[in-house]
Amino acid sequence: MKSYGKTIKEIRLSKGILLKGLADKQLSMSLLSQFENEKSTISCERFHHLLSKLEVTFDEFILMQTENTFSASQLAIIEYMEYMYIETIQDWIKLEEQYEKLYIYYQENYSLELDHVLQLFRFDLAMKKEIIQDTPVLEAYKKHNHYLEPAKHYLLNTDTWGIYELKLFARISIAIEPSLLFRCLKIAVKKSQRLSKIPGNKDILYQTFTTIFSVFCFFEEVAYAKETFKLWKTWVFKEEHIEQAIFIPFYEGWIAFLENDVSLADRMMEQSLHHLETLGMSKSLKGYRIFKQLILTNEFPGIIVNDPLFGDFLDIKNY
């Protein structure tokens, strides 16, 4: 296992921060250098102060330090998610039982992430019951989006966004009103330029764009969807991100559909499907064909959750 000092050095270098950029009254350059090179230790107070300056939470640090993919609480979340795809009220009852089990786990093993995810799952649970009972989605949303208020309050009152806050932003974006959501997206774009340099987070901005764009589409906020797409496309071509570029026509087609130009939407989406077929990306091709059908028949009642914790790209949350 790597030392704490070595992990701190890797984080600092990945963010392009010089030692003098971290030095202050509590942390001299000499002490920092010795700590990074395993020649000295620092107090817990100074260590947490150092994490704060690096804008990394202790949980994030531990994941990087141990090189584990998921923490114990995240594994509990993943286990719960195996029950989330339901069709009947009997399935819903089983899901509610799993929620109660996860809540008991949370009471015995508190973590901030689990606290916020439980709010999301409570919202999801309430929405699923309403949908099974044929309640219109937007009516159900207005009735239950209060479940996400505590997580929203935390996010909007946190001055310094780290990796966790950026992921939380995407996870609870469904609860943020459109004008504020777009302002937060512009903040997220600035933050992600630095955070994407941390190992395992190079695509965090694109994961955020996908979710926020789908939220605006869900609420038929065409103007905000177009502005989000414009930002997204600019970054894709600026960074020459080939994989993302393949999907740009598809999402441009989604905008065309929202503007009632179904013929253009079909042509644009087919461009992306053609690229996927040419490249032999059969799994993505299959998923996007289904995705296209759902959008063009107006049967896509959800948002895209592109989050490693929540599964593959086309695992859709039906909000």
Automatic annotation (TrEMBL):
GO molecular function, one term: DNA binding
Domain HTH cro/C1-type as annotated: residue spans: 8-61
Pfam families, per the entry: Rgg_C
Bilayer-spanning residue ranges: none
Cited PANTHER family: TRANSCRIPTIONAL REGULATOR-RELATED
UniProt name for this protein: HTH cro/C1-type domain-containing protein
Native source organism of the sequence: Enterococcus mundtii
